[in-house]
């Protein structure tokens, strides 16, 4: 482009020089040729006009190049801002997940310690007092009555302790995971107007004594349904809970509009699910196409790898 502009500028200068040369030679032309001065003037004006047009062209080209450079700078700045925002979003989601996991883990630990330690000691003490009450019956009536009062107070203490344990554990899971899923799905359908189908294998949860698994699956179900309500525009959602050997699988499918773009752009829910499943050595798969709904499938090993347990 620079070479072409230089060439055009040289042509304009040459035309102007030619016009001047013709004008200088006017005195040598015979009077029978009056058009020569006009031709010289025309050539001079043509050179000047060409030069002016060339200047305007160069100015426009410079302005266009400046505008393009500004657009490129803005594009890079926007891309950097979007990347920073996505990284911040991911970090925030992980932080929220870590806080939830720490809170749930600590609450479960406290509940387990209370039940296994303090609860067992109180029950043993109640049994001892009951034996003492039986042996004092008819022998020491005042002591017998006093022991009876102590047993009653101890019974109230044990009941309060059980309420504390239930409060520390998720209230929804008080009657088991399946019952909690059914209640939550019914409320979900009532509030959002989205039909639901639950297919939970009765044998899927048999023999599972780790309450953390129940709590994690229930929280994942909550997050999955919240994502359906916010983004899917679905009319129906299907949930399946199955087990094959030591692998527990939860499948959540909707008939909504599907997802376009990276799943991380749909809030902390999906990122949180992926991190929860990964933390226990499981797998999380998203199958979604625009207009074809979304399927979330997660598989959790009930026998966790040693590396995961120690972590």
TrEMBL record:
The protein's enzyme class: transferase
The species this protein was found in: Massilia eurypsychrophila
EC annotation from Swiss-Prot or TrEMBL: 2.7.13.3
Keyword entries, A-Z: 4Fe-4S, Cytoplasm, Iron, Iron-sulfur, Kinase, Membrane, Metal-binding, Transferase, Transmembrane, Transmembrane helix, Two-component regulatory system
Gene Ontology cellular component list: cytoplasm; membrane
Residue spans crossing the bilayer: 35-54
Entry function: Member of the two-component regulatory system NreB/NreC involved in the control of dissimilatory nitrate/nitrite reduction in response to oxygen. NreB functions as a direct oxygen sensor histidine kinase which is autophosphorylated, in the absence of oxygen, probably at the conserved histidine residue, and transfers its phosphate group probably to a conserved aspartate residue of NreC. NreB/NreC activates the expression of the nitrate (narGHJI) and nitrite (nir) reductase operons, as well as the putative nitrate transporter gene narT.
Domain of life per record: Bacteria
Protein name: Oxygen sensor histidine kinase NreB
Residue ranges of domain Histidine kinase in the record: 113-304
Cofactor(s) the protein needs: [4Fe-4S] cluster
PANTHER family: NITRATE/NITRITE SENSOR PROTEIN NARX-RELATED
Molecular function GO terms recorded: 4 iron, 4 sulfur cluster binding; metal ion binding; phosphorelay sensor kinase activity; protein dimerization activity
InterPro entries, alphabetized: HATPase_C_sf, HATPase_dom, His_kinase_dom, Sensor_HK_TwoCompSys, Sig_transdc_His_kin-like_C, Sig_transdc_His_kin_sub3_dim/P
């Amino acid at each position: 482009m620079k070479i072409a502009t230089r060439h055009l500028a040289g042509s304009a200068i040459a035309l102007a020089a030619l016009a001047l040369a013709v004008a200088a030679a006017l005195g040598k032309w015979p009077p029978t040729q009056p058009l020569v001065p006009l031709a010289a003037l025309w050539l001079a004006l043509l050179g000047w006009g060409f030069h002016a047009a060339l200047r305007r062209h160069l100015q426009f080209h410079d302005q266009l190049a400046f505008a393009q450079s500004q657009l490129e700078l803005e594009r890079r700045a926007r891309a950097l801002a979007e990347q920073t925002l996505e990284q911040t979003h991911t970090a925030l989601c992980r932080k929220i997940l870590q806080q939830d996991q720490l809170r749930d883990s600590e609450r479960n630990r406290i509940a387990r310690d209370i039940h296994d330690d303090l609860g067992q000691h109180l029950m043993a003490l109640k049994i001892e007092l009951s034996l003492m009450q039986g042996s004092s019956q008819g022998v020491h009536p005042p002591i017998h009555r006093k022991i009876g009062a102590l047993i009653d107070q101890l019974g109230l203490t044990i009941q309060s302790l059980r309420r504390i344990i239930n409060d520390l554990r998720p209230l929804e899971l008080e009657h088991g995971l399946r019952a909690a899923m059914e209640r939550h799905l019914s409320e979900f359908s009532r509030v959002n107007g989205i039909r639901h189908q639950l297919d939970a294998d009765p044998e899927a949860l048999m023999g599972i004594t780790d309450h953390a698994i129940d709590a994690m699956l229930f929280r994942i179900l909550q997050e999955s349904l919240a994502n359906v309500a916010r983004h899917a525009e679905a009319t129906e959602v299907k949930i399946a809970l199955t087990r094959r050997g030591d692998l527990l699988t939860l499948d959540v499918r909707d008939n909504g509009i599907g997802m376009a773009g990276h799943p991380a752009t749909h809030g902390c829910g999906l990122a949180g699910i992926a991190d929860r499943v990964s933390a226990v050595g499981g797998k999380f798969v998203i199958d979604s196409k625009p207009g074809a709904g979304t399927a979330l499938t997660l598989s959790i090993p009930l026998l966790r790898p040693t590396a995961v347990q120690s972590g």
